[in-house]
Write a structure and sequence with these properties.
Layout lengths: L1 E6 L2 E3 L5 E9 L6 E7 L6 E7 L4 E3 L7 E6 L4 E6 L8 E8 L8 E2 L3 E5 L2
Parallel strand pairs: 2-11
Antiparallel strand pairs: 1-3, 3-8, 4-5, 4-9, 5-6, 7-8, 9-10, 9-11
Length: 118
């Protein structure tokens, strides 16, 4: 079992920055892929970025160049640095873990809210 706890959400003006963190506990060493997803109010959850255990990262086109995902293995922490935030980045952000692949999520965190508004 793996437990994921997100933190770092909040409210920011357009153009601002936030840094999200996800702390994994339980058996985090077994995880191949850690990802961030987000869900705007009333819309479907969408993938944001992924970090694979060998270091490869991937980003959705909507955040590429503005967001940076990183994983601190020694501390079992996943971060998401979000810069140049836009109102359309608003939503609940979830940390997700895939044991074997990024395409299948085995564990979800509870989420942290990000609001970008002037």
């Amino acid at each position: 079992q793996v437990q994921l706890v997100e933190s770092g959400g909040g409210s920011v003006q357009p153009g601002g920055s936030l840094r999200l963190s996800c702390t994994a506990s339980g058996s985090p060493g077994s995880i191949y892929c850690l990802s961030w997803y987000r869900q705007p109010l009333g819309k479907e959850r969408e993938w944001v970025a992924s970090h694979k255990s060998h270091g490869k990262t991937d980003y959705s086109n909507s955040v590429k160049g503005r967001f940076a995902i990183s994983r601190v293995n020694g501390k079992n922490i996943l971060t998401l640095q979000m810069n140049s935030l836009k109102p359309e980045d608003t939503g609940m952000y979830y940390c997700a873990a895939g044991v074997r692949t990024c395409g299948v999520t085995d564990y979800w965190g509870q989420g942290t809210q990000v609001t970008v508004s002037s």
